[in-house]
Amino acid sequence: MASAFSHAFVALVLGKASRHPIMTWQVLFLGMACSIVPDLDVIGFSFGIRYGDLWGHRGLTHSIFFACLLSALLVRVWYWRTSSSAKATLFIYFFSCTASHGVLDAMTNGGLGVAFFSPFDTSRYFFTYRPVAVSPIGIGDFFTGEAFRILASEATWIWLPTLVLFLLLRGFQQMWLWRPSQTSHRPREPGESAKD
Ligand SMILES: [Zn+2]
């Protein structure tokens, strides 16, 4: 796993990148929770579930299918009264936060790969280039271990690229999506219809 800090950081920045009015702090906190939830699968170790099993660590909860399911559920339960555009934005956001977890894990240099296509294909996958130092599963082990080395690796390979993505997404919206209409506030020409 990458550390929970980095997973949550990516979710927060992704949320802040969107300028849709639905992106409140409540939504951002849910997004950060989505980015960490996949690692709850470590509970399975206490029940004898092995790392490589369907429900093992980096298994089903790290899949694209799980990200779809969790996002749809959140939108259905908490945001069913919102507009279609808000629902679509929220689904994409929650999905991106949850799916980003597996993507980051697949960039780490330890453990088993990520079951991106579970439950349909339970093979484990890593990216070919894995520059992120793997983080210990327990938070205690994280701080007693090589916390600085891990955070430095994540700052380089996760935080910085995420901030670049933030700037790109903001720039894209500034240019294409949220540009105020050039015609809406111009003075009306003499004889021009008031109903256009
Ligand atoms: Zn994980």
Nutshell version of this structure?
The chain has 6 helices and no strands. It has helices at 4-17, 25-36, 64-78, 84-105, 139-144, 147-177. The protein is globular.
Question: Your description of this structure?
Answer:
The protein has six helices and no strands. The chain is mainly alpha-helical and 196 residues long.
Choose one word for the global shape: globular
Q: β content, as a range?
A: under 5%
Element-by-element helix/strand order: HHHHHH
Unreliably modeled segments? none
Work out the helicity level.
40-55%
Q: Supply the number of helical segments.
A: 6
Ions, cofactors and other bound molecules: zinc ion
Q: Supply the helix-strand structural class.
A: mainly alpha
Please tell me how large the radius of gyration is.
21 Å
Please state the average pLDDT score: 87
Largest sheet: none
Question: What is the total tally of β strands?
Answer: 0
**Termini Cα gap:** 56 Å
